[in-house]
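Run log // design_07
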């Protein structure tokens, strides 16, 4: 039960992170959060967004794998 719940949390957070990273790839200036310390700073480059996308998809894939594995074991 705990494995299934953690798998769903991983897959949902990974999916949410993937959607956010796709948004930052499409519109990096619009997706930048407010920063009082550096109000006119440039957004991070596309490399960081791609890395975030890959990590998010890996977490989502791990969650789906664990969910299927726990469903087969039950």
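design_07 sequence
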């Amino acid at each position: 039960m705990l494995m299934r719940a953690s798998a769903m949390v991983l897959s949902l957070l990974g999916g949410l992170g993937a959607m956010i990273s796709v948004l930052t790839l499409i519109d990096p200036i619009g997706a930048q959060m407010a920063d009082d310390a550096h109000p006119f700073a440039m957004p991070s480059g596309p490399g960081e967004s791609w890395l975030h996308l890959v990590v998010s998809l890996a977490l989502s894939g791990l969650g789906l794998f664990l969910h299927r594995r726990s469903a087969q074991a039950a």
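The CA atoms of residues 37 and 51 lie 25 Å apart.
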